[in-house]
Amino acid sequence: MTAPMTAKVIPLNPKPAPSSSAPTLAPMLALTAADMNAVNAVILERMQSEIPLIPSLAGHLIAGGGKRMRPMLTLAGAALCDYQGARHHKLAAAVEFIHTATLLHDDVVDGSDLRRGNATANIVFGNPATVLVGDFLFSRAFELMVEDGSLKVLKILSHASAVIAEGEVDQLTAARHVETSEERYLAIIGAKTAALFAAACKIGAVVAERGEAAERALDDYGRNLGIAFQLVDDAIDYDSEAAEMGKGKGDDFRDGKMTLPVILAYARGSEEERSFWRDAIAGFSTSDEDLAHAVELINRHEAVSATRERARHFAQRAIDAIAAFPRGEAHAAMVEAAEFAVSRRY
Question: Is 49 helix (H, G, I), strand (E, B) or coil?
């Protein structure tokens, strides 16, 4: 077993001055509203099957809400590149199917019973059906990619799907390993979350035929946004009430996941505190009282605020990545989406 590592501090930009109004997704929603109607029509059509359980189970998760950030990013990236066609509708639907499939599989792996405030599909329909419908949605996503006809798009999204799976396996092998470093954690979330954000954005530039510079810029925007988004998700697990999150408070703690708030609290803690973390992450101390103590230690070492600071850093990198694009509705919406990602409480 390796010795405990001190968390490497990532250089951060200065904390932004408080704004008079909190950032929202409203500009992104307004920018993509018409196109999202077309995307939702594709989703509804392609989740149908002669096997009634398939649309029923898929619809359970899709109808459960969610921000639809990933397909919106495909549409926003295309708008930023002034794309005037309709290819991005099917591709945005493919992105959402990939994401939905991974959620279905994740809930089975994690044994989750709550998502977005609703019972997870595996609780309602059982694990076997949930896994198989996830496979069905992956297949539908690849059908949509093939119909688009672009080998470049197929390469981008198929590679992202493989990277996501690798990230999920890496997270599984890192679970209950209290010495997990910040660097490994960032690599895990870069794969399991940021890879699809990056691909979703990049294909907007591909369909617009804007060239490699634009593709790289949108890839960088999505990748950094995805990391920021996941950092905040992991902070929320120790920072918000379950009703706000739509999932059980402390799920990550009880699953033994080494997310950044825990990594930082462990690295900054005393030997007595580290002994608690070793027991907790190993699964020996997971009661409500243990969770309360974990939150107290995380607050003592300001691990949630430090996690949010890192999220702001990556969000700023996302904003910087699209600096060369013309200012306008799409640019403003994408900037505010990055700001929203790190300010949100849910």
Answer: coil
Count Cβ atoms below 10 Å from residue 54 Cβ, excluding itself.
18
Kindly report the CATH class assigned to 26-343: mainly alpha
d(CA 266, CA 179): 9
114 φ/ψ angles, rounded to the nearest 5 degrees: -145, 135
pLDDT tens digits for 193-206?
999 999 999 999 99
Tokens of 250: 């402390």
User: Mind listing the pLDDT tens digit for each residue in 32-56?
Assistant: 999 999 999 999 999 999 999 998 8
* Residues whose CB falls within 8 Å of the CB of residue 216, separated by 6 or more in sequence, listed in order: none
Domain positions in the chain are: 26-343
Q: Which residues are CB-neighbours of 224 under 8 A, at least 6 positions away?
A: 194, 314, 315, 317, 318, 321
Q: Please state, in angstroms and rounded to a whole number, the distance separating the CA atoms of residues 332 and 318.
A: 13
Give CA 207 to chain center in angstroms. 23
Q: Which amino acid is at 250?
A: G
- Cα–Cα distance list, 282 to 89, 171, 276, 277, 343 (Å): 45, 15, 10, 8, 32
| CB-CB contact of 163 with 187 (8 Å) | no
| Of 253, 214, 207, 235, nearest in space to 304 by CA | 235
Alpha helices, DSSP H only, in the chain?
Answer: 26-46, 53-62, 69-80, 87-110, 121-125, 127-148, 151-174, 182-189, 195-207, 212-236, 242-245, 251-254, 260-268, 271-282, 288-300, 303-321, 329-343
**Is the pLDDT higher at 286 or at 8?**
286
What is the value of pTM for the model shown?
Answer: 0.89
Tokens of residue 63, six digits: 């109808």
Q: What is the DSSP secondary structure assignment for residue 178, as one 8-state letter?
A: T
